[in-house]
Specification:
This protein has a 6-stranded antiparallel sheet. The chain has a 6-stranded antiparallel sheet with strand order 4-5-6-7-11-12, covered by helices on one side. It has a 5-stranded parallel sheet with strand order 15-14-13-16-17, sandwiched between helices. The radius of gyration is 24 Å and the shape is globular. It is of the alpha+beta class. The protein has helices at about 15-25, 80-90, 100-110, 165, 180-185, 240-255, 270-285, 305-315, 330-335, 345-355, 370-375, 375-390, 395-405, 415-420, 440-445, 450-460, 465-495, 505-515, 530-540, 555-560, 560-570, 580-590, 600-615, and strands at about 1-10, 35-40, 45-50, 65, 70-80, 120-130, 135-140, 150-155, 155-160, 200, 205-210, 220, 265, 290-295, 315-320, 360-365, 500. The two termini are about 35 Å apart. The chain has 23 helices and 17 strands. Helix 10 packs across helix 17. The relative contact order is 0.12. The protein folds into 4 domains: about 1-175 and about 200-220, 4-Layer Sandwich (Glutamine Phosphoribosylpyrophosphate, subunit 1, domain 1); about 240-375 and about 470-540, Rossmann fold; about 390-425 and about 430-460, no CATH class; about 555-615, no CATH class.
Length: about 625
C-alpha cells in the first residue's frame, strides 16, 4: 500500500514545488521510499510514496517506467492475481525485471489497453501515463478499498490518494461544498463522486478515468457492475453452495496472504473475522491474530470471543485495552480523515492498527461480510416491514408517513419506522439510517434544509426487483465504500499498515450477488445464513453465531462525563464553531437525558476539528 499524487496539464506546469510537498504529505502511507518524475515538457508530474510489501528491493521503486513503450505508472494497492497475469503476459513475449505487481500493471496495459482493468483481482488506485498517446489513465478498484481524489480545472487534472496531498498547493481554493456538507450531516459521508470541498471529486469505485492532453477531454466510465442474479437455478443445492463458498473464501485468503513481509489477522470474534482466521491457519504454519477491548461492560469487550476462536485455531494471539483518554486522538484523526466521515469506530480501528503494526505490515480483516451475506439487522427489519405493511395501499402509507414526520419527535424509532412506509416496495428503499434529518440540519446551519442527502440517497438505490438485493447492493456501494473502507484505509495507513479484505475478492462478489439465493443471505429472522453454517462447520461448538457486535466503543457514556465531555464542549460550544449554538446545546441536553446522541455530537466535533485543521471557511 502506498500514496500517489500527480498532475497532467495542457501547458507546462509553472508551480511544481507543491508536487513533492503533496507526496511527502503522504509519508504515513509509504515510509519506505519516495519518487517523483516530470516529463521533459513539464506537462506531466507523477509522485509516489512506497510501503514495500512485494519485492522489497529497489526494483519496486516508483514511478515505474516501461521505456520501450514510453509508459509510466504510480500505483497504490495490491493485485492478488498478478502472478497469473504475469504468466499469461510472459507467453505473449513480455519479460519482467522485478517481482512486483506494479510491473505487471504496465505490461497488462500495453497488451490489453484500458480494458485490462477488468482482469484485475485486487485493491488498487493507479495512474498510467502514455507518452505516445499523450493520455493518462486512472482506475479504482471495484469496492473502493483504495481512495482516489481529483480536481479538474484550468486545463489540467490533479489527483491523489488523499485530499491533503492536493491541498499542499496553497493556491488551490478550499471552500465547503454545500451538497457535500448536507450529505455529511445527513448520511455521514459525501457519496459517489461528491466531495466535501468545492471543486474536488472522488473517482467512484469500479470506475476508470482518462484525460487527453491534446484535446483536454476527460472521460469517466464504469468498468464493472453487479452480476445478473442467477440464484434460482435448481441444480445449486445448499450443500453445493456451501462447498463453493468454503473454496472461494479459502482461495481468497490464500491469495491475500502473499507478501514479502509478516501478515496477521484482525480478529473480533465475530463470524467474518473468525472465518478469515480459520482459513488463514490452512495456509500458514503460524498465524498472528489481534483484538481490542474497552472498559464499560461485556458489550464492548471483544476479547473473550476472540480468545475462544484464537485458542481453538491455535494462533498467536495479541490483545489491547483502550481507555477513554483516547480523546487526545481527535485532532490527529480529524487531520488524517481529510474528508471526514461519521464513524466513531475509527478510534478502535486506529488503536488496533497501531498494535498490529508493531508485529506485522499486512493484516487481513473481515470487512465486506455484512454487505455480501446480509449481516446487518436492518435487513431483517426491512423484510418484516415489507411483508407486514407493504400490501397497504400506497396513498394510505403516504398519509401515515407524513403524519409521523410532523407529529413524532425527530430521532424516535417509531417516527423512523413509520416514515419507511412512504416507499415503493417494488423498486425503492427506505432510508433508515440518518444522522441529522432535514429539520436538524436546518437548525444546525440556520438555513432552510435542502434535502440533498435524501435525494442523492434515493437516486442511488440499485435497480433490482428483490428488496434484499437492493438493500445489500446499496450498502455495498454506499455505506461500505464511503464509510467502512474509508475508515479502515485512513486509520490503518496512519501506521503504515496494509489491511486487506478477503471477503471482497472479486470471485466472492460474483458468488454472493450473482449465484447465492437471497434466502441463504438473510430472511425476516436470520442473517448471514450461509456464513453461519460455514462457521458451525469450522469453528468451536460454543462459538456464538447469533452475536452481532459492530466494531464500536461506549461513546454515549464517554460523552456524558469526563475528558470526552470536556473536549466536546470546548470545541462545539466555542464561539468559532460554525454550528448554531442553540441547536448544539439542545443536542447535549437531549443526550444527558438519556437519548443516544453520542455519534451525532461526534459528527459535529470531528467536522469542526477537520475544518479548522485545513483552514476551511464556514461560508
Amino acid at each position: 500500500m502506498c500514496g500517489i499524487v500527480g498532475i497532467v496539464s495542457q501547458k507546462p506546469v509553472k508551480h511544481r514545488e507543491w508536487l513533492d510537498a503533496g507526496r511527502d504529505g503522504l509519508q504515513h502511507r509509504g515510509p519506505d521510499d519516495a519518487g517523483t518524475w516530470w516529463s521533459e515538457d513539464l506537462r506531466v508530474g507523477l509522485a509516489h510514496r512506497r510501503l514495500a510489501i512485494m519485492d522489497l528491493s529497489s526494483d519496486g521503486h516508483q514511478p515505474m517506467h516501461f521505456p520501450e513503450k514510453r509508459l509510466t505508472v504510480i500505483f497504490n494497492g495490491e493485485i492478488y492475481n498478478f502472478r497469473e497475469l504475469r504468466k499469461e503476459l510472459s507467453v505473449k513475449g513480455y519479460s519482467f525485471h522485478s517481482q512486483s505487481d506494479t510491473e505487471v500493471l504496465l505490461a497488462a496495459f500495453d497488451c490489453w489497453g484500458e480494458s485490462f482493468v477488468s482482469r484485475l483481482n485486487g485493491m488498487f488506485a493507479f495512474a498510467i501515463f502514455d507518452d505516445v498517446r499523450q493520455k493518462i489513465f486512472l482506475a479504482r478498484d471495484r469496492t473502493g478499498e483504495k481512495p482516489l481524489f481529483y480536481r479538474a480545472a484550468n486545463d489540467e487534472l490533479r489527483f491523489a490518494s488523499e485530499l491533503k496531498a492536493l491541498l499542499a498547493d496553497p493556491l488551490v481554493p478550499r471552500s465547503l461544498n454545500p451538497d457535500g456538507l448536507d450529505t455529511y450531516l445527513g448520511l455521514g459521508f459525501a457519496p459517489g463522486d461528491l466531495c466535501i470541498l468545492e471543486g474536488f471529486n472522488k473517482l467512484p469505485p469500479a470506475h476508470q478515468l482518462s484525460f487527453d492532453l491534446k484535446s483536454g477531454n476527460l472521460e469517466i466510465k464504469r468498468y464493472w457492475d453487479f452480476p445478473k442474479s442467477n440464484a434460482q437455478v435448481p441444480s445449486l443445492t445448499k450443500d453445493m453452495l456451501l462447498c463453493e463458498l468454503e473454496t472461494l473464501l479459502s482461495e481468497a485468503v490464500q491469495r491475500q496472504m502473499v507478501a514479502d513481509v509478516p501478515v496477521g489477522v484482525l480478529l473480533s470474534g465475530g463470524v467474518d473475522s473468525s472465518l478469515i482466521a480459520a482459513m488463514a491457519v490452512r495456509h500458514a504454519s503460524e498465524v498472528r491474530t489481534f483484538t481490542i477491548g474497552f472498559p464499560g461492560g461485556n458489550r464492548y469487550d471483544e476479547r473473550p470471543h476472540a480468545k475462544l476462536v484464537a485458542d481453538f485455531l491455535g494462533t498467536r494471539h495479541h490483545e489491547l485495552m483502550a481507555e477513554p483518554t483516547t480523546v487526545e486522538l481527535f485532532p490527529e484523526l480529524a487531520r488524517q480523515f481529510d474528508e471526514p466521515i461519521v464513524d466513531s469506530s475509527m478510534i478502535p480501528t486506529y488503536l488496533v492498527s497501531k498494535l498490529v503494526r508493531q508485529h506485522c505490515t499486512v493484516a487481513l480483516g473481515g470487512d465486506g461480510g455484512d454487505e455480501l451475506f446480509g449481516g446487518y439487522p436492518r435487513y431483517n427489519r426491512l423484510i418484516r416491514i415489507q411483508k407486514q405493511l407493504g400490501p397497504l395501499p400506497l396513498p394510505l402509507r403516504k398519509i401515515i408517513s407524513a403524519g409521523a414526520t410532523h407529529l413524532l419527535p425527530a430521532g424516535t424509532w417509531g417516527r423512523t419506522y413509520l416514515q419507511t412506509l412512504d416507499v415503493n416496495w417494488t423498486s425503492g428503499l427506505p432510508q433508515i439510517a440518518t444522522y441529522f434529518d432535514t429539520q436538524w440540519r436546518a437548525k444546525l446551519l440556520n438555513r432552510a434544509g435542502t434535502g440533498v442527502a435524501e435525494r442523492l440517497y434515493s437516486q442511488r438505490v440499485p435497480n433490482h426487483p428483490d428488496l434484499l438485493q437492493r438493500a445489500t447492493r446499496m450498502d455495498f456501494t454506499h455505506f461500505l465504500a464511503e464509510d467502512v473502507l474509508v475508515k479502515v484505509d485512513r486509520a490503518s495507513m496512519m501506521h503504515a499498515l496494509e489491511v486487506r479484505a478477503p471477503m471482497l475478492d472479486v470471485n466472492l462478489l460474483e458468488f454472493a450477488f450473482g449465484r447465492l439465493p437471497v434466502n441463504m443471505r438473510a430472511t425476516a429472522t436470520g442473517r448471514k445464513i450461509i456464513l453461519k453454517e460455514l462457521a458451525q462447520k469450522l469453528l468451536p461448538p460454543e462459538f456464538n453465531t447469533v452475536r452481532k457486535q459492530g466494531f464500536s466503543i461506549p461513546l454515549d457514556s464517554w460523552v456524558r462525563t469526563g475528558a470526552f465531555r470536556k473536549s466536546f464542549e470546548e470545541v462545539l460550544l466555542d464561539e468559532s464553531c460554525m454550528f448554531q449554538q442553540d441547536a448544539v446545546k439542545q443536542l447535549f441536553r437531549l443526550h444527558d437525558r438519556g437519548k443516544s446522541h453520542g455519534e451525532r455530537l461526534f459528527a459535529l466535533m470531528l467536522f469542526e476539528l477537520w475544518r479548522k485543521a485545513y483552514g476551511i471557511s464556514p461560508e
